[in-house]
From TrEMBL:
All copies of domain Major facilitator superfamily (MFS) profile, residue ranges: 20-417
InterPro entries for the chain: MFS, MFS_dom, MFS_trans_sf, NO3_transporter
Pfam entry (one): MFS_1
Entry keywords, A to Z: Membrane, Nitrate assimilation, Transmembrane, Transmembrane helix
Chief location bin: membrane
Organism encoding this protein: Mucilaginibacter pocheonensis
Membrane spanning residue stretches: 21-42, 54-74, 86-105, 111-129, 150-174, 180-198, 231-250, 270-290, 302-321, 327-348, 360-382, 388-410
Name of the featured protein: NNP family nitrate/nitrite transporter-like MFS transporter
Intracellular or extracellular location(s): Membrane
Membrane topology: Multi-pass membrane protein
Length: 431
């Protein structure tokens, strides 16, 4: 595609490519801020709604399961509507349950609102798709990882900020039961602001919107489900389930884990849970940057080996975190496994744009949905009354190691598209 950038200057707002770059990661950030805005407030919500461990587990599962279907749909809509229209509509519709979750006064209604809020987690697919449209093949992994990492940062910042917003509202004289409800108005307003920015300052492609450049003309509107026969996509889906799936699970349970295991206050637990998410400011980008450099030197096989390696380290260090007997040991091991987990996120999407250039949105959606499917399955472990959080973390660690072996033996460099797209660099083109 013409006019794709070959250089990433993260401090620039010049040109539609860089404006889109910054607005799309900001959209992702705000959606994640709203998606996980309730997680650090769960100690208060648990007490007010008298939630059991099993009910909390169901809420965690609901918060990530809706996104599975949403990401598949959003991926296809990016191919047909274009990422700009898709993002604006997702922000407008998704803001509604964020605003109105405060109306929940029992377990069932809270669960349904949490399920509805989960749809905005599909914002990730738009960001990865839109970024891929704006950057040249050699830079896709890096650009996707930076936007993905900075967007994911919303899940960490919300763990730090929402308890502060909650405390400020309590300071104005409201009860705790009122404060968590009013606090959710903040991310709802943020989503509306970003919808305006997305509408005014972005384009679908470097050359204009889909309807302006005739991008979809001659393209079949029928979903090409033949991509499901490609084993590489399933390997990437499993990989993303292990890294991003673990990330959203940890975002959901970290505050409760620190409160229950180390007797921290809600604000202190939120701070340490937020540090986990804050690693995204550089770690996911690092995974994408290294993936691009390895890919330039060793091709797709090198990218696959890198992904397998960081997954292996993530799994081993997650087991170490589970066995931590002190807060200091837990924090050190948490930061260690977080580094490799978030690098694995970046390394996964350093491969995604290359495996099937005719269906980039669909493939991004499938792999992205895999991340949420992993989070949903992990949620069942944290729901069980017979499995402790420590045991759940341990089981997940061993599962991550097993998937790293699957990724290791997957031949990513073997293309399943026509010969003109067999070269990794050419295959990265969105033309």
């Amino acid at each position: 595609m013409e006019n794709q950038l070959t250089k990433l200057n993260i401090f620039s707002l010049k040109g539609v490519q860089m404006r889109t770059f910054h607005i799309t990661w900001l959209m992702f950030f705000v959606c994640f801020f709203g998606w996980f805005g309730l997680a650090p407030l769960m100690p208060t919500i648990r007490a007010e709604l008298h939630l059991t461990k099993g009910q909390i587990g169901n809420i965690i599962i609901a918060s990530v399961s809706a996104t599975i279907i949403a990401r598949l749909i959003i991926g296809k809509l990016c191919d047909t509507w274009g990422p700009r229209k898709t993002a604006i509509r997702l922000l407008l519709v998704g803001s509604l349950p964020v605003f109105f979750v405060g109306l929940a006064h029992d377990y069932t209604t809270f669960l349904l609102f949490r399920l509805a809020i989960g749809v905005i987690g599909a914002s990730f697919v738009i960001t990865q798709f839109h970024t891929s449209m704006m950057f040249a093949p050699k830079l896709k992994g890096t650009a996707n990882a930076v936007t993905g990492g900075w967007g994911n940062l919303g899940g960490g910042v919300t763990n730090m900020v929402m308890p502060l917003i909650f405390a400020a509202i309590v300071g104005f004289g409201y009860t705790k039961a009122e404060a968590w409800r009013y606090a959710m108005i903040v991310p709802g307003v943020m989503m509306l602001v970003i919808a305006f920015l997305y509408s005014k300052y972005t384009k679908d492609t470097p050359n204009g919107n889909y309807d302006e450049v005739g991008y979809t003309q001659g393209k079949s509107s029928k979903t090409d489900w033949s991509v499901l026969a490609d084993w590489r996509i399933w390997a990437l889906t499993m990989a993303y389930a292990m890294c991003f799936g673990m990330e959203i699970t940890f975002d959901n349970v970290a505050s409760l884990h620190f409160v229950d295991s180390f007797h921290l206050s809600q604000s202190s637990a939120g701070f340490w849970a937020g540090i986990f998410g804050f690693m995204n400011i550089f770690a996911r980008a690092l995974g994408g940057i290294v993936s691009d450099k390895v890919g330039n030197k060793f091709g797709m096989r090198g990218k696959g080996l890198l992904l397998a390696g960081v997954l292996l380290c993530e799994g081993a260090l997650l087991i170490l975190f589970a066995q931590s007997g002190s807060l200091l040991a837990a924090i050190v091991s948490m930061l260690s496994f977080a580094l490799f987990l978030k690098m694995a996120n970046g390394a996964t999407y350093g491969i995604v744009p290359f495996v099937n250039t005719k269906n980039v949105g669909l493939v991004s959606g499938i792999v992205g949905a895999g991340g949420n499917f992993g989070g949903m399955l992990f949620g069942f472990l944290f729901k069980s009354d017979s499995i402790t959080y420590v045991q759940a973390f341990t089981y997940i660690g061993y599962t991550v190691i097993a998937v790293s072996i699957i990724v290791f033996i997957t031949r990513f460099y073997k293309q399943s598209v026509p010969s003109k797209e067999t070269d990794p660099v050419i295959a990265g083109s969105m033309a």
